[in-house]
């Protein structure tokens, strides 16, 4: 339902409001040290096996670092990469292809760097301020080997694992997380045939300690890096994808049993 301007005024529909907000948020010389410069003293936190086993309702775990990658041409993937309309995203992926996608787009487990005596895993994309505020979940619409459409999947790039966990709310459908499915019946029918959605969320708790308010901008930059890697990797695998902004946080939180108030679902990539 769209609220009528007769009864409701929304500042975010005002272009001047947008420009004024942007002017306040971009880095400039006056105030940069106060508002944008990173804190010198901070601790980088990465997921470990211990974090996985502390999760509730874990059903199974799959390692994606062990899968072999096919030979691919990066130049060809860059040229052929495109956003495919959702009505054409109906090809079912194999389990091996999903694992290959994660390894190609996110991490291989072969690269690290040392920072103040700490061994830091490196991913296949630039981070938002070296904090990796973006988290990756997989929502299935088909049963494919390890992947069942009635369970949730959480990806841990720092250790190369995908965790399968029980879904508490089984009444919600795959299509419910797509905003467009609630007001466009034609699109809703097409979404029913999409085999897989990669859901991207942000958690600014750690990066806020280093960058404060600027952590939000850095997280959104990282979202773009992750989506680009996923699209390029899907193209290299001979598959198709579509980045989507209309992924509903409230529905997604119910689907993924999300109770962490620091986590926000903001983006997704439909794959077919």
Features:
single chain, 272 residues, alpha+beta, NADH Oxidase, 20% strand
Distance from N terminus to C terminus (CA atoms, Å) equals 30 Å
Biggest beta sheet summary? 7 strands, antiparallel
Oligomer description: single chain
- C-alpha-based Rg, rounded: 20 Å
- Assign the CATH architecture: 3-Layer(aba) Sandwich
Number of strands: 9
Question: How many domains comprise the coordinates?
Answer: 1
How much of the sequence lies in strands comes to 15-25%
Shape designation: globular
Helical content, roughly? 25-40%
* CATH superfamily annotation: NADH Oxidase
What strand line-up does the widest sheet have? 1-6-5-4-7-9-8
Structure description:
- By secondary structure, this protein is an alpha+beta fold.
- It has one domain: NADH Oxidase (3-Layer(aba) Sandwich).
- It is 30% helix and 20% strand.
- It has helices at 15-25, 32-35, 49-53, 74-80, 95-105, 185-191, 205-211, 215-236, 249-255, and strands spanning 58-63, 112-115, 118-121, 134-140, 151-156, 161-166, 196-203, 241-244, 263-271.
- The strands form two sheets. The protein has a seven-stranded antiparallel sheet with strand order 1-6-5-4-7-9-8, sandwiched between helices. Strands 2-3 form a two-stranded antiparallel sheet.
- β5 (151-156) and β6 form a beta hairpin.
- α4 (74-80) packs across α8.
- The mean pLDDT is 89.
């Amino acid at each position: 339902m769209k609220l009528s301007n007769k009864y409701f005024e929304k500042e975010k529909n005002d272009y001047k409001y947008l420009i004024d907000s942007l002017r306040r948020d971009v880095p400039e010389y006056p105030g940069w040290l106060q508002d944008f410069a990173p804190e010198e003293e901070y601790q980088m936190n990465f997921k470990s096996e211990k974090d996985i086993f502390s999760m509730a309702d874990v059903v199974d775990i799959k390692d994606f670092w062990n899968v072999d990658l096919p030979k691919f041409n990066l130049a060809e993937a860059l040229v052929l990469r495109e956003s495919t309309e959702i009505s054409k995203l109906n090809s079912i992926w194999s389990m091996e292809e999903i694992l290959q996608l994660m390894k190609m787009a996110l991490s291989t487990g072969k690269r690290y760097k040392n920072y103040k005596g700490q061994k830091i895993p490196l991913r296949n994309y630039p981070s938002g301020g070296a904090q990796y505020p973006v988290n990756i979940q997989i929502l299935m619409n088909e049963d494919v080997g390890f992947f069942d459409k009635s369970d949730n999947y959480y990806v841990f790039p720092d250790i190369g694992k995908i965790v399968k966990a029980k879904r508490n709310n089984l009444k919600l459908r795959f299509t419910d997380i797509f905003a467009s499915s609630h007001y466009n019946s034609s699109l809703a029918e097409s979404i029913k045939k999409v085999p897989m959605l990669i859901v991207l969320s942000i958690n600014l708790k750690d990066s806020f300690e280093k960058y404060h308010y600027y952590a939000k901008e850095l997280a959104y930059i990282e979202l773009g890096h992750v989506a680009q890697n996923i699209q390029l990797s899907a193209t290299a695998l001979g598959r198709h994808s579509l980045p989507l902004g209309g992924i509903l946080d409230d529905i997604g939180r119910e689907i993924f049993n999300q109770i962490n108030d620091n986590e926000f679902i903001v983006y997704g990539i439909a794959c077919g």
